[in-house]
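Morning, I've got a small favour to ask if you have a moment. The fold is given in discrete form, as structure tokens running alongside the sequence. I'd be grateful if you could look everything over and explain what you see. No rush at all, and the record is pasted right below.
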Amino acid sequence: MLNKHKMTIKREFFVTGFSSVLFIAIIFISLLSISIYQLSIDNAKQKLKSANVHLSTYTEGVLESLVMSTKINAIYSEVAQYHGNDLQKKANILNLFKATTEANINIKFCYAGYENGELLINDYIVPTGYDATTRPWYVSAIEEYPELSVGLPYQDIKTEEWLVSVSEAFVNEAGEITGVIAVDCSLAYVKALMSDVVYYKSQSNYVVDSNGDIFVHPNLGYLHQNADSIVPGLNALFVADSGYIKYQLDGSKRLAFYKKMPKTNWIVVSAIDESEIMEPIFIKIVITVLGLILLSILLGFGQVKLYETRLVKPILTLRDRIAEITIGKSVTDTSYKYSNIEFVEIANRIEKMAQTSLRKKTYELELILESTSDGILVVDVEGKVIHSNSKFKEFWSLSKGLRKGDSSSALKENLLAEHFKPQNILDAVEHDILYLDNGVVLEQYSCALNDGGIITGRLWSYRDITEKIKAEEELKKLATTDSLTGLWNRRYFIEKSAYEMNLAKQYKKPLSLLFIDIDYFKHINDTFGHGVGDEALQYLALKLTALVRSSDIVTRFGGEEFCVLLVGTNQVSARLLAEKIRSYFDEHSFSVQGFELSYTLSIGIASYDEHQLQHDSIEMLMAAADNACYEAKANGRNCVMPK
């Protein structure tokens, strides 16, 4: 009749639960690993592209300013009309070049060369035998005419310094080319621009000209060499106007993003070692996989335990209880070896129980008690158990089964002994909140059982309100604290400060307020991003809390403004503390997202005591401290200003 080769219910739940968790974990780990890898690669590529676009745009801006200066000077008629014997025109032209150089910080030299070999230039001694027509900038301008020659790298004939020129040929009234006007900037200046945007340790930004020669590179050994001589076939990779490429350099695989600058035929390249990307990805995936495996094991055991508690144990308990009712004897501890045999027995017992109204009523009551989310206990006037459900036992962690007819003394071995008092069985309705040692919060409701005016027993109901209490506490915390720094928020600070001000006035105690503002905080956000700015605010909050007393009240007042209320502190002591805080931030820096960051503080002080009676309200004290902080910033910042 029964299949003896089937598993027990407990084992079946264990196998099914663990198998489902393991299967889901494998799929989730695989998808998550792929996602982490792809997102990390995409993020690295985006950062590399962002750095390259930033550099290209900045460099194009510099060259564009040189182009504009060249075009403006070329319009000046005296430049083209100069013949070498007009001293007044020469003076006017040199003044023009001087003004152009002073007006554009990117320009190092502004000059003009003529067909007779003469060179007009400010603050530069032309070498003997100098012929302007043989210089690269002159030749390039003639070749490109009527267009401009933009971005030509060349060496100064005297200092051998590498420069970048923008030049344009000009003509006389007859349309004949008579000379070239040019401006240039230092190639070292362009190189400095390239080193400004570096997101990775292995990142190198360099520039290749139209011939494939490298003229900007952090490694001096590669300068003025053809790219193909360093990495064979590198120039052939620059096919499109921009894009990602991969190549090998000194045994390392490099990932690069390049962008062509159409006006100059320059190619700006940003490259990093792939290993610098892959190592963090591998570590992140390993940590994630290990964490998910551990979590899966814990969830598997938790699920199995939950199945045993919520399904297996109630079913077995129900079977035993029904057997006790129908057979009329105590439940015995019987071990079953066959799967689902318990369901068969339960069905048989329930069928027999339906034969009498008493057994049917007991079954319905047990079903109601077991289906409710509240823990229920009912005792008679003698303190013996009439009914109890599994939720009640779960709440109170009973070490053994609690059956109908058990004395209330069976409850005294657990936490319930503190709250369950049978002697109060005739009391009126009771309501209370119980905070258990295991962190659970229960709402207790108790009332007497009344049958026609006769007390027959008492009912206790317990509801788990742990999450509700936690939610209320979290709402209270959110209402009084700053979400970014964890400090008290402005509203709570004003309320608490008003209270402390009243105490100070009542007991004639001093009270001081520090109003703190981060100097040039907008520069931090604009330069490093709001993520770094947020961590800078958190760093200030952490250090302020460490530097002041536990009785002092620290708040983020708004933006980069912080306030510290110093209870029982006069202005002299407040100034000493403010100077200590200012000095700490002046002398220390901190690391955030790969940046070494530091900033200074401007601090205003206002105090209330027998000598500062004009600050007799918290509003006046805050206004005075705010004004003092404003004066500190006007006084050069990074200072303390009392009011």
